[in-house]
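Hi all, a correction to my earlier message: I attached the wrong file for DUF937 domain-containing protein. Here's the right sequence:
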Amino acid sequence: MGLLDGAKNLIGDVAAAADRILEQTGSGKLALTMAKFYPGGLTAFLDRLRETGHGDAVASWLAAGAGPEARQPVPAAAIASCLPEGVAERLAYDLGVPEGRVAVVLSEFLPAAVAEQSENGQLKPQLNFSTQVRSAPGAA
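and the right structure:
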């Protein structure tokens, strides 16, 4: 085994470990992370996916009673194009995954997370910290 093969294996092991961590923490972690770092939170991110032509996929994630096999995927490249500058870095840090894997992780886990965060075909009320601006004490 050469040095390059060893590096590939190490990168693969790190990516697999990151995926396991996200699976173990569940949809609440993903929804909370989106609330903290995506402007407008998970609701706004789903709106952005709809605007970019992935409305059918989002609808399949929200569909009441739909099983995992009915959830349509959104390619990682499409997810990446919906992330504003700097957001992927923050998501990576909070989710504990390499920045280059954020779009892949969202592509893989967002359908189940959204399904878990929905009820009767609608997204449950979501936290949204990312757009809350606090003024300095004494500022009007």
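Sorry for the mix-up. Strands lie at 118-119, 122-123.
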